[in-house]
Amino acid sequence: MSAYAALTGAGFRAQTRDKATLFFTFAFPLLFLVIFGLIFRGQKIPETGRPYISYTAPGVLSWGVANAAVFSVAFTLMRWRGSDLLRLIRMTPTKLTTVLGSRYVLALIVVAAQSVLFIAAGMLPVFGLKIDGRWPLVIPVLVLGVTAFLSIGAFVGNLANTSESVSAIANCMMVPMAFLSGSFLPLEEMPSWVGTLSWALPLRYLNNGVSDSLTGSGSLGDIAVAAGGLAAFTLVFCLLTLKTFRWSNSS
Length: 251
What we know:
Belongs to the ABC-2 integral membrane protein family. By secondary structure, the protein is an all-alpha fold. It has helices at about 5-15, 20-40, 55-80, 85-90, 95-120, 140-160, 165-180, 190-200, 200-215, 220-245. It has ten helices and no strands.
């Protein structure tokens, strides 16, 4: 068995055995979908005439995917560096790219499971999410979203030395971003400055891409803009991580 396959299998078993990880990856974001779906059940956005669920389901899905990506890789890098595992990897034939690649595959598996769960829940009669015919376009958007937020998580994990600092930095980024990017409430119902500010946040692009693909709320050009924004954030945070990467806490 290759090192890549072994690492991927070990990571998968570790994630599925950790009940807390499973809860915060799947059940916790789904709880937001249920809460907002029931609160705004049957209601429409006055400005657009579209049902709330066409905003909340893609928005909560995007936030759940982004949150899982950031926290998973941030905690992993922090632990590996703290235990000097990164320095050991550096001295072995196994490349760091192989190790991180295994985490990337795990993240894609998680986003696939999250997407099926969230979309299926949103389509229940109690919520009534309607899927557009071009829904397959959500797949490359989600892949780009996972890649972007994994790069953000890698940057966070490179900065933090403790689990407390990982949680503090990641939450300070992800919680405000969820509200300012329209994951929970449509930006049309917020002050205009929030909509302007949201263009500087990667979650806005993921929200837009997922919503436009799933519900047909935007054009192919809008989806391309969302994909381009996610690719740009990926490049920026990858460069930042490579520039500041530390193999150990003492380096």
